[in-house]
Amino acid sequence: MEQSKDNRMIPMTSFSSGNGQSVTDDVYYFTNQIVNVVMLGKPDADWFLVDCGMPKCGAEIIAAAEKRYGKDNPPKAIFLTHGHFDHVGGIVEILQKWDVRVYAHPLEMPFLTGQQEYPEPDSSVEGGLLAKLSSLYPHEPIDISGHVSPFPADGSLPGLPEWQWLHAPGHSPGQVVFFREQDKILISADAFITVKQDSFYKVLVQKQEVQGPPRYLTTDWQAAWETVRKLKDLRPAIVIAGHGQYMEGAELRLGLKKLVEDFATVAIPDHGKFV
User: Fold this and answer.
1) Which CA distances in Å does 224 have to 66, 111, 122, 168, 194?
2) Smallest Cα–Cα separation from 41: which of 31, 49, 30, 32?
3) 171 and 191 Cβ atoms separated by less than 8 Å
4) What is the pTM of this model?
């Protein structure tokens, strides 16, 4: 196994970093610097890990999981929403601790098996300081060959029959989200997020607002728009995004409605190499 050759600690954080939040008794998320790692399962039961955080942060995620689930209770599987640096940054260290199966969309496999690198982040894109610094962000592939398998084609999640995965392209070719129909919880990855991710100040204070995907790494804006339309039609009651605090209720519904209607002006940047 190998993290990307350009893997490096990224010096950014938020006031929420290091904190965990229970959304329901079996849905919990932990903020690792500026990204959310989700843990599915009650503390006294089997559990599953969604995404693996920022570079060089595997030990922090392991410690957070052990605090909630105990030291001798590894996850049953790891589900990746996609393979960008801030969602797989600790995966090799985590797999060295817990030898468990990883699942991802087939279109993400080249980026997870050392075959293909993502396009370089667009530091020229319209946006704030975190967009301007995006040339620092790792984009080369990791290699977890032998540990990663494709999600079942029927949309199910192994071991979690009440959840389903949905293809949500745009931000990356094989991005997926996870949805539980019974209580309308959506883990939205970076399809849409709940903080303006290119703004250093808003990320730092975690100012809550429904926003489109991070601009500096979104390569297909029309697909991203169609994905947001599809997710709005699910009528989610609660959203845990890849970035930002969880949202629910009227604020979520109205924010998502506005994002779909105004996506061309609110989400898509005026300029950038992927526009």
Assistant:
1) 35, 19, 16, 8, 15
2) 49
3) yes
4) 0.97
The tokens describing 188, both together, are 């939205």
Give CA–CA dist 21/47, Å, rounded: 16
Residue 41: what are its φ and ψ, rounded to 5°? 135, 145
Q: Half-sphere exposure of 261 toward its Cβ, with a 13 Å CA cutoff?
A: 6
Q: What ranges in 105-220 are assigned the alpha helix state H?
A: 109-112, 129-132, 200-205
The H or E element spanning position 258 is helix 249-261
Q: pLDDT per residue over 99-158, tens digit each? A: 999 999 999 999 999 999 999 999 999 998 889 999 999 999 999 999 999 999 999 999
- Whether the pLDDT of residue 44 is over 90: the answer is no
Asked whether 167 and 174 are in contact (CB, 8 A), the reply is yes
Name the residue with tokens 């991710």: 197
CATH 3.60.15.10 fits 20-152+162-266, yes or no: yes
* AA identity, residue 250: A
Question: In angstroms, rounded to a whole number, what is the distance separating the alpha carbons of residues 203 and 140?
Answer: 24
Give the model's confidence band at 194: pLDDT under 50 very low, under 70 low, under 90 confident, else very high. very high
For residue 86, give every residue at least 6 positions away whose Cβ sits within 8 Å of its Cβ, in sequence order, or none.
Answer: 10, 34, 35, 53, 54, 55, 137, 242
Query: How far is the C-alpha of 196 from the C-alpha of 132, rounded, in Å?
Result: 14
Tokens representing residue 225 in the block: 């728009």
Calpha distance 98→74 (Å, rounded):
6
